[in-house]
């Protein structure tokens, strides 16, 4: 009975549910008006709270350090604990999930108590701290689900990371549907829901999210099942969002759409049950382990299994010329070992990824933050602008999901390194910014779509590339350090570039601007910044293509 509850498939389904519940930071616009009015904030103060919320949602270094400390790591067939304390043996991903659940609950519960008057009006710095705390809990949940999924499904890491990141991107749209169904017009109650719902789901499911040491690569069709369900949910949400922007749904209609959404969100458990049943049946038919395997067979299994650290026994099977090339390359020797954060920061690859993050994703965030003003300046109607803003999460999801899925496809079928897809998305993002800058009629039906898909793709590609270059053991810490460049780039490009130029072009009386000139210069600058990220990604591709050919791709072929 335990095997039907504790396996990597139910763990993945549980992680998906946690992912779609923890994106409260994406719905700040829902509860920010009541936060502003109840606390007597001006717009500048509210923006300060929002900045701390964004910092919390992107500062995941603490979650990465905790995950590394409490989870066991198998290296060359030997399980070792990254933390030397005795309690580490009792740890696991559930510890990080529990810590994130506590942060989310405390942070949003404090804001709810302040809004409804349960406590006195707190100082601004206290409100900023709890906004940071509630949003930072999201990084603990996201880091756990992404890294655990990557370790449970190593051969198709791009696909599983794309699914996890995709549901995080969808979480804003899903939570807003919950708001319209149960809390419409009552953002204070919505704050209470944001405190309780993710914490309850985490406590309920956290012991299912585990690292399962399964040496089997024949599971792609079941991951594709998760993918199909995900696409169905996206299509349904797009339909509901467009419908709500054109008409007001009655109470019974909102309840009906909510019930259908919950049924769709429960489908991953059906996929998990089917996958576990087929794996159990296949295992029973193919292998009959009625006695412990011999020492020799254990060594054989370990040498043929996937090893993120690059086990030497695997490299010895390379052809002689490739092996000679590997031994003569300092980069190959560097990548053979699992790196910690300090070791990774001493490499050029780390700073190339950091540069692509601060330039590429920073420019994407700058576009997102100003999309409403761009639409107004170009004369789009309110309904058109609302549709574009609402559908942004859909394009973001398509990029997150598609980036992981397509990168796995080109690696397994074409043998192309994953950074090549990153270069392609950065190049496409340049065209997206140029389309917005030119300002031709209908440009916002194309430009933001391209930028949104490419922006989302990076959130799937970055964790996977990080794990392949620097190893899995400290991947959570290294990736979250790189991801910290995103809000930094957003601040520099949104405030110092887009906002500054808009204020110069705007009418001094009402601080508004209409016409192509309002954003043309700033988006040409964003295109230039994206081009810098493109060059950095291209350099990373040329630096790591031999490593992917000799190590990563060969490891995948060996495991399959």
UniProtKB/TrEMBL annotation:
<feature type="transmembrane region" description="Helical">
    <location>
        <begin position="124"/>
        <end position="144"/>
    </location>
</feature>
<feature type="transmembrane region" description="Helical">
    <location>
        <begin position="252"/>
        <end position="272"/>
    </location>
</feature>
<keyword id="KW-0812">Transmembrane</keyword>
<feature type="transmembrane region" description="Helical">
    <location>
        <begin position="348"/>
        <end position="368"/>
    </location>
</feature>
<feature type="domain" description="Major facilitator superfamily (MFS) profile">
    <location>
        <begin position="348"/>
        <end position="560"/>
    </location>
</feature>
<feature type="transmembrane region" description="Helical">
    <location>
        <begin position="156"/>
        <end position="178"/>
    </location>
</feature>
<feature type="region of interest" description="Disordered">
    <location>
        <begin position="289"/>
        <end position="314"/>
    </location>
</feature>
<feature type="transmembrane region" description="Helical">
    <location>
        <begin position="446"/>
        <end position="466"/>
    </location>
</feature>
<feature type="transmembrane region" description="Helical">
    <location>
        <begin position="388"/>
        <end position="407"/>
    </location>
</feature>
<feature type="transmembrane region" description="Helical">
    <location>
        <begin position="94"/>
        <end position="118"/>
    </location>
</feature>
<dbReference type="InterPro" id="IPR036259">
    <property type="entry name" value="MFS_trans_sf"/>
</dbReference>
<dbReference type="InterPro" id="IPR010658">
    <property type="entry name" value="Nodulin-like"/>
</dbReference>
<feature type="transmembrane region" description="Helical">
    <location>
        <begin position="12"/>
        <end position="35"/>
    </location>
</feature>
<dbReference type="GO" id="GO:0022857">
    <property type="term" value="F:transmembrane transporter activity"/>
</dbReference>
<dbReference type="Pfam" id="PF06813">
    <property type="entry name" value="Nodulin-like"/>
</dbReference>
<dbReference type="InterPro" id="IPR020846">
    <property type="entry name" value="MFS_dom"/>
</dbReference>
<feature type="transmembrane region" description="Helical">
    <location>
        <begin position="419"/>
        <end position="440"/>
    </location>
</feature>
<feature type="transmembrane region" description="Helical">
    <location>
        <begin position="223"/>
        <end position="246"/>
    </location>
</feature>
<feature type="transmembrane region" description="Helical">
    <location>
        <begin position="190"/>
        <end position="211"/>
    </location>
</feature>
<keyword id="KW-1133">Transmembrane helix</keyword>
<feature type="transmembrane region" description="Helical">
    <location>
        <begin position="514"/>
        <end position="542"/>
    </location>
</feature>
<dbReference type="GO" id="GO:0016020">
    <property type="term" value="C:membrane"/>
</dbReference>
<dbReference type="InterPro" id="IPR056555">
    <property type="entry name" value="NFD4_C"/>
</dbReference>
<keyword id="KW-0472">Membrane</keyword>
<feature type="transmembrane region" description="Helical">
    <location>
        <begin position="478"/>
        <end position="502"/>
    </location>
</feature>
<protein>
    <submittedName>
        <fullName>protein Nuclear fusion DEFECTIVE 4</fullName>
    </submittedName>
</protein>
<dbReference type="Pfam" id="PF23262">
    <property type="entry name" value="NFD4_C"/>
</dbReference>
<feature type="transmembrane region" description="Helical">
    <location>
        <begin position="55"/>
        <end position="73"/>
    </location>
</feature>
């Amino acid at each position: 009975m335990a095997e039907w509850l504790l396996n990597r498939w139910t763990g993945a389904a549980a992680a998906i549910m946690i992912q779609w519940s923890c994106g409260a930071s994406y719905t700040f616009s829902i509860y920010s008006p009541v936060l502003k009015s109840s606390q007597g904030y001006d717009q500048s103060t509210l923006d300060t709270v929002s900045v701390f919320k964004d910092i919390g949602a992107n500062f995941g270094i603490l979650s990465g350090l905790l995950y590394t400390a409490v989870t066991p790591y198998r290296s060359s067939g030997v399980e070792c604990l990254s933390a030397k304390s005795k309690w580490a043996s009792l740890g696991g991903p559930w510890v990080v999930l529990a810590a994130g659940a506590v942060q989310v609950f405390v942070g949003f519960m404090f804001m709810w108590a302040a809004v409804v008057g349960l406590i006195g009006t707190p100082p601004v710095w206290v409100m900023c701290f709890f906004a940071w705390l509630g949003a930072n809990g999201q990084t603990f949940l996201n880091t756990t689900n992404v890294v655990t999924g990557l370790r449970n499904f190593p051969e198709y890491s791009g696909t599983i990371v794309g699914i996890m990141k995709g549901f995080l991107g969808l979480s804003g749209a899903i939570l807003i549907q919950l708001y319209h169904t149960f809390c419409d017009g009552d953002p204070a109650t919505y704050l209470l829901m944001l405190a309780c719902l993710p914490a309850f789901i985490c406590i309920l499911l956290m012991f299912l999210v585990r690292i399962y040491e399964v040496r089997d690569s024949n599971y792609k069709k079941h991951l594709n099942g998760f993918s199909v369900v995900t696409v169905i949910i996206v299509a349904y949400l797009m339909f509901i969002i467009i419908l709500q922007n054109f008409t007001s749904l009655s109470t019974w209609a909102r309840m009906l759409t909510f019930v259908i959404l919950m049924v769709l969100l429960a489908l991953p458990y059906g996929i998990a049950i089917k996958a576990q049943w087929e794996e159990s049946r296949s295992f029973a038919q193919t292998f009959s382990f009625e006695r412990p395997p011999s020492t020799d067979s254990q060594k054989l299994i370990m040498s043929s299994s996937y090893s993120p650290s690059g086990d030497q026994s695997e490299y010895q099977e390379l052809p002689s010329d490739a092996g000679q090339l590997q031994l003569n390359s300092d980069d190959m020797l560097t990548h053979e070992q699992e790196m910690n954060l300090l070791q990774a920061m001493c490499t050029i690859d780390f700073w190339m990824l950091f540069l692509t993050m601060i330039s590429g994703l920073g420019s994407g965030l700058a576009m997102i933050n100003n999309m409403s003003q761009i639409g107004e300046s170009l004369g789009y109607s309110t309904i058109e602008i609302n549709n574009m803003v609402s559908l942004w999460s859909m394009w973001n999801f398509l990029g997150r999901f598609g980036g992981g899925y397509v990168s796995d496809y080109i690696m397994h079928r074409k043998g192309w390194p994953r950074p090549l897809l990153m270069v392609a998305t950065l190049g496409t993002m340049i065209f997206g910014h140029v389309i917005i800058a030119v300002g031709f009629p209908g440009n916002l039906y194309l430009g933001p779509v391209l930028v949104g898909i490419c922006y989302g793709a990076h959130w799937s590609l970055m964790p996977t590339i990080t794990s392949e270059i620097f190893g899995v053991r400290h991947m959570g810490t290294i990736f979250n350090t790189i991801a910290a460049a995103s809000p930094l780039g957003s601040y520099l490009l949104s405030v110092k570039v887009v906002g500054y130029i808009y204020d110069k072009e705007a009418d001094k009386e009402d601080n508004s601007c209409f016409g192509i000139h309002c954003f043309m210069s700033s988006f040409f600058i964003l295109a230039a910044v994206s081009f810098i990220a493109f060059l950095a990604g291209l350099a990373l591709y040329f630096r790591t293509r031999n490593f992917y050919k000799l190590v990563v791709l060969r490891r995948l072929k060996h495991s399959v």
